[in-house]
Structure formats: C-alpha cells, structure tokens
Amino acid sequence: MEAGIVGLPNVGKSTLFNALTSSKQAQSANYPFCTIEPNEGVVSVPDERLQRITRFIPPQKVVPAAIKLVDIAGIVKGASEGQGLGNKFLSHIREVDAILQVVRCFEDPDVIHVAGKVNPVSDIETIELELMLADLQGMENALPKAERSAKSGDKEALHRASVMRRCLEHLNAGQPLRKLTWDPVDAKAVKSFGLMTAKPILYVANVDETDLEGKGPLVQEVREFAAKTGAEVVPVCAKLEAEIAELDEADRNDMLSSVGLAEPALAVLARAAYRVLGLQSFFTAGEKEVRAWTVPAGATAPQAAGVIHTDFEKGFIRAEIYTLPDLEQFKSEKEIRSAGRLRVEGKAYVMQDGDICHFLVNT
Fold first, then answer.
1. What would the mean pLDDT of 141-158 be, rounded to a whole number?
2. Which DSSP letter does residue 315 get?
3. What are the C-alpha distances in Å from 316 to residues 120, 282, 289, 321, 326?
4. pLDDT the model gives residue 76
5. How much is the CA Rg of the chain, to the nearest whole Å?
6. Rounded distance between C-alpha atoms, residue 341 and residue 322, angstroms
7. Model confidence over 90-142: pLDDT tens digits?
8. What's the CA gap between 138 and 168, in Å, rounded?
C-alpha cells in the first residue's frame, strides 16, 4: 500500500518527505518542478503498543509497521491539460492508494508561492479541480469502449459501464468521487479505473514554528474544508521536522521538549496516513522479536497469516489470539492461557486492530 505526497510547487512536499524518510537529501531548490521523478521511501509507523508489549515479553528486536510514501512532483493549474508536465505527474498519482496533500499554511516572503499569495483552500481546490478534470477525461475516453463491450450482454461489462456512467455523472457535477458511497463490488470496479478523486485523502497543513498545533486561521480554513468530506487534517512544520530528523535521540528529545511537543509531528502524520490507507496492525511477540504486521481493515485470520508468509495462508489451521489489556493484566502468555483468556479463532475470524497472535499452520 502506497501513499502519494502531492501539492502545489514550493509547499514543502520534498522537505516533508525527506524528514519522514530521514533520507537527508539536499533541500529542494526554491523553484517549481525541482522534483521530476517521484522519490520513494518507507516510513515506520510509531506505535506505543509495541513498547507496552516488550515490558512483559522482552525481545531481541522490535519491528514497527511501515508504509510506503511516494513524493510526487508539484501539480499546477492546467496539469490535466499537460501544463508543467502535468500528465506525467498525474500518472504517478493514479498508481498510489491514498493521497497526502501538503497545503502551505505559513507566510514567508523568501519562499515563492506559485499563485502569488498564500491561500490554502484555493490551493486545495486547484489540485482537486485538476484531478477531477483528469478523471473526467479518462472516463469520457473509456466509456464508449465499455459500452461497446456491454452490448454483448456480458454481465461484467454491463456493470463496468454502469459504474463509469455513475462516475461521470458525479464528476460532471463537480464532485470528487471520494464523496460517493460504493458497495464492495462497485468499489472494486472504481479502484480498477485508477481514478484519483476516488482515493482517500489526508491534508497535511505545513505550518511555521509559531503555530505547531495548527490553531492559526489558515489551518482552521483547511479543517473547515476537510470537514465537508470527513477528511483528516494534520498540522506539521516540515522545516522543524526536517531539523529534528537529523538529530540523535537525546538531542531530538531535548528539541521536542523545547518547542512543547511530546513526539515529532511526523509520528502523528505516519499514524494518520496508516488510517487513511485503511490499514491496521496485529502483533506477534516472542523472544526473538516483537513485531507489528500490517493488514487491511477487515482482513481475516488466514489473510493475516499470509502477510507473515504466503504459505501460511494456504496452510492456516487456527489462530491463538489475546489482547494487550490481557497481557498487562496477567503479565505473561502462560497466565493468559491459564485464565482462559487465550482465544482460538478459525478461518472466518476478522482481525481486530491490536490482536496479539500465534498462527498454527500446516506447511
């Protein structure tokens, strides 16, 4: 699962990406399109539950969950018509599973804004419009072929054409497709179309060091806009986070304390991105490692076992599961078992976020 970082040029996308991935690349120049090809990086998802587990099951190592991020070049007005190499950049967005849109919420005369002024909602609407126009163009081009196939009476072709028409109707009304509610079958078809406005979105408000909590008027405008679609907003000072990411742990903690942060804002962002991607974690715990594994929400126990090893899904027999509160109450797996709190679950079990598991498989 991948999340793409998008935004207008010079909003801090690459600074944020470098901080998130600790890539320590040279800072981008202060002009549009300094990112041409997308950069990719893997980001750990901080999870305090891992440390709580290790209090009772000390391991040799701790492995957090991770997500893949893609830093996509700045989108400008007219991108859907090829402005600013727009078609190439838009194709990168089609390939990701969710969008993290960085929105500039700070004033700085030394950092050029492509529109000449800082207006975060206008920035959001500019990119939303370009994505909608590109989706609209894609559906208008694809629908005639789908309708020709549907004339054969093939049920799948009929269904695809029907979903395309619904998408077109919504786009023509000026609405992004993420506002629509789809049943699972329709949602699968929509995903296969690669439509950008159907992807879940998280707004990242890039603030300055005087507004780390995002209480200023510019961030409030973004929150009000996001609330209309149920989207989440995370305030981050990309410049500060990039500085923090360069420090060793002791100095990092001192700097966080000096600015009144309990943890880097990037930790909050990574967890929010994880949620936007529709992911959740389950844990395995033993002497060798305590590890968080990633599955989509709604995954079954065999599918979760398959994340550890593909053969485990095929050979799944059952899962033994307990919770972190169980571990904190009974102090060990042995006592959890003795208390009858260790659950045995079969193939139909739907994994819950935070399950601690042992899988029994036939290999």
1. 90
2. T
3. 49, 16, 22, 14, 24
4. 60
5. 23
6. 7
7. 778 888 999 999 999 988 877 766 666 889 999 999 999 989 999 999 999 99
8. 10
